[in-house]
Amino acid sequence: MAKVLVVTSGKGGVGKTTSSAALGAALAQTGQNVVVVDFDVGLRNLDLIMGAERRVVFDLVNVVQGDAKLAQALIRDKRVETLSLLPASQTRDKDALTPEGVERVIDELRAKFDWIVCDSPAGIERGATLAMRHADMAVVVTNPEVSSVRDSDRIIGLLDSKTAKAEAGEKVEKHLLLTRYDAMRAARGEMLKVEDVLEILAIPLLGIIPDSEEVLRASNVGCPVTLHNPISAPARAYADAARRLMGEIIEVVTPIERKGLMSRLFGRKVA
Amino acid sequence: MMNLFNFFSRPRTAPVARERLQLLLAHERALSGKSDLAAILQEEILAVIAKHIAIDREKVNVKLERDGTISTLEIDIEMPEAVLVRN
Question: Assuming Cys at both sites, which of A74, A165, A232, A248 could form a disulfide with A214, CB separation 3.0 to 4.6 Å?
């Protein structure tokens, strides 16, 4: 039974695309058939983060409007056999997506894949509501920062009211993914703690991704962080989160990014 | 030595963030669904008043203010002297 998972946040720049790519790749590495779908029409970026930007021919809008077959638009990942990408359009605007068209594409994807990971655009407008529309599960990506937590609260409200599941009287399974977390700053009282965010948003914790240089390194070369450096702290945190999505029970530990003394003193990498 | 002193006396800002969020979200959650409470109240209050006296809709002002744990609803209706004199 295929699962539709939306990765959403309300606020921009918190790590939705990074998380979609990392979770998608981690799920695919366990042998599951995974497609990651970019819903950010007009500002596509998932192709770049996954290193497939030069292989895009057709996109989600072409498939929704019937100009291309689904199989023509899907891009198979070169590193993980069971991972595919359905890119967004770069030239069209968000109104190019219709609710009926999206529903038809999601139904078609359900027949082919085990996981359909929908990378939502920022905001609470049409693009974001269409991305969450058919979700069975949601990963709410949140930074430990006031505006991100507030926007996540709005998104949780939308997941409980505007999705197909909610309208049918069912619940979308919601999970909190705390990203850009700095355990040292939280311990010093400079950053909201995990418990603070959990208490305020009141949804179960899927994982804590440490603020790490590895994330930028992976995006520089167009590789999901879980594939680029699997033993790094963020990669391990994403891999554990993916296993929790599949129903495994793994204790969440607060990851501490190991920094050398010099880097801690001068705030950047030396040598 | 000064730097070390600053390090230990740095104010903890996270508790402030937490408190501000808790207050704000309590309000926003209460209002969600009833998208514009002030507008709904205005309509219903006007309907009640209109049953008894003729009022000019342009001369009605409804204000909902939120401040900490207390909210105030202010309704301002300008009425010509004539409507108060019943015959």
Answer: A232
